[in-house]
Amino acid sequence: MTCLHTPSRRMALGLIGATLVLPRAASAGGLDTVSGSAFGTHWRIAAPAGSGIARLAPGIDSLFAEVDRQFSPWRSDSAISRFNTGPAGLHTTGPALIAVTAAALDIAERSAGAFDPTVGPLVARWGFGPIDRGGAPDWRGLSAGPAGLAKARAGLTLDLCGIAKGWALDRAADLARAAGFENLLLDLGGEFIALGRHPDGRDWRLAVEAPLTSGPPPAALRLPDGAAAATSGMRAQSYSLNGRLYSHIIDPGARSPVAGGLRSVTVVARDALTADGWATALCAAGEEAGPALAERHDIAALFLIEDQGAVHEIRTGPIAEVIL
């Protein structure tokens, strides 16, 4: 995910290119849309024409503002920043931060540390994040429980940028359901969750953008009711130096940006938090270990790998069921 923050205009423009998009044909007649900005990127909702979707906008804006106050490492007054600058031991905090941290630690364990929510100082070292203090990553030094969050040493920091946007999208879907909306597609910075069906009576559809260049979409997906999709990859934040591409996706084992030809991973899951977290984990695992990890956990994933100027796919789990 894009790290939750309010960036400069220059950085925001570099972050907005999403790797999943609503196809133009799907965004034509028969739909109303409403949109806004959050976390240095965009949000958008598409729904059947005449459904009154615009009335959701104030609630979505308020929801995302609260998420930012909880999870943004760019804000010194956020709940996560207070935890990061605090001493070792137990910290009382809100249920949202506890729940997302618990989910992050679960994926960290299941991915053997490919997803590491303590990787923030390494992200900053390579020029992509604000957590410029703290020692070596060690997700096992964190714990989450009903009483709050605990860390084994003062220098340990928490970075939920690889999963919190998915959680925010799930909460937006909850808000829409509570308001009585049954058919819509929510987009938060290129992560999507579908409710119901398109006005044409079919599942909602997405296009997977070319991972680095403006070529034709390499794949299209359908999202059944309740399903979510997220992509992690090089397109959102990366730079080239001496012929090598450096991205914001950090390999915790190597303590450096992911190397090799893997350019993006798209995951379809039962909720956006799961899709977001596993897309991050599989991308961090790399082009060899990532597909093996996805197969082991039966994750619906599409890997796009560049080799000598050509891009090829690896499909895992039930992803074939949703590729058009």
UniProtKB/TrEMBL annotation:
Binding residues annotated for Mg(2+), in chain numbering: G162, D276, T280
Cofactor binding summary note: Magnesium. Can also use manganese.
Signal peptide: 1-28
Keyword terms of this UniProt record: FAD, Flavoprotein, Magnesium, Metal-binding, Signal, Transferase
E.C. no: 2.7.1.180
Name the UniProt record assigns to this protein: FAD:protein FMN transferase
Catalysed reactions listed for this entry: L-threonyl-[protein] + FAD = FMN-L-threonyl-[protein] + AMP + H(+)
A single MF term (Gene Ontology): metal ion binding
InterPro entries: ApbE, ApbE-like_sf
Top-level taxon of the source organism: Bacteria
Similarity field: Belongs to the ApbE family.
Upper lineage: Bacteria, Pseudomonadati, Pseudomonadota, Alphaproteobacteria, Rhodobacterales
Pfam families, sorted: ApbE
Cofactor(s) for this UniProt protein: Mg(2+); Mn(2+)
